[in-house]
Write a structure and sequence with these properties.
Blueprint (H helix, E strand, L loop, with lengths): L1 H26 L4 H25 L8 H25 L4 H21 L6 E6 L3 E6 L2 H28 L3 H19 L2 H4 L11 H22 L5 H11 L4 E4 L5 E4 L1 H7 L16 H12 L4 E6 L5 E10 L5 E10 L2
Antiparallel strand pairs: 1-2, 3-4, 3-7, 5-6, 6-7
Helix pairs in contact: 1-2, 1-8, 2-3, 2-8, 3-4, 3-5, 4-5, 5-6, 6-8
Amino acid sequence: MIGIYLNLILIALAVSALICSVSFFASGSGIQQTRNYTLAIGISTFLINIGYSLMAFSADVTKAWIPRFIGLYGIDVFLLIELSFLLYDMKTKIGTHAIILGIFTVYALFDLIIHGSPNTFLYVRYDNLFTSYELQNRAHHYFHYSYITIIALTMFVIGVTWYRMQKTRHDKDFALRLILSNLIIILEALPDIVAKAFVTRHPSFFYCVGFSTVFFMWYISIIKQSYFVPTIKNTAAEVFGVVDVPILILDFDGKIRLFNPAAKRFLGINENTQCLRDILNISDVEMLRISAKARRGEKSERTTTTKDEKVCVLKNYIKFDSALDPFCIIATVLFKE
């Protein structure tokens, strides 16, 4: 029964990796290229865990090599994507990037052909509950782990160089976490490299968990790193506070819901200020026109005066919700010379 439970864990890891990567990709956090890499690595982690777990649940041992091939494909793609990210973040020249990635892609193709071959392993059904494998072709086996070792060590060397290039503490922490994750890739393979491990019933569990660990280390690191990437989302509050232009957030009745320090300074807004007409000379009819346009999603602009007769221009922009319905007015007040 333990084999079933272990493979259910792999399925849970696969689904979790897919959900995390897709949600981060859709969130808009960080930069687009980083989100692309995270999605690709998440999908690769999903393929690794799903492939080997489906192999375990395959009742037909003659076809068990097919889902295992999917898991192997996920491993090779995972490593190539991480290598590509390192080269990308180091701002490697496109030609050099393509050559290095091309060499390892050819190696990965040979790995799929050789190690993914149906006769690499002997597939065995245990207790009529789950399928595993035993080593049948030692040369195929060692070819695969030579590939894993070479690409992991290459990423380690590149990662150390990448770490030394970082200037800030959070960038160095990010690089260090990814370097350590590459060591996990090597360590997780040790139980499977030893020939005796193939007499056990769960040889694939260790490296599936290993690659999943690497993904979640990546995911956590990317989430933390995204906090330091300037975006509209994480800088809007500061811009709202420091810009030297009065900004008002209004509802469709002209009531003031939010205002920035510049509005308080230039327009004299205080806790008793309720609506736009308290600070600007706008008639009820004009306010109704502004409200009507806003409800239709139309921006507006008009010249008016403050209560102390300073001439200004009121510009109204519309904020839309996720359903593309207008839900508030963003107003700026620009004073004329």
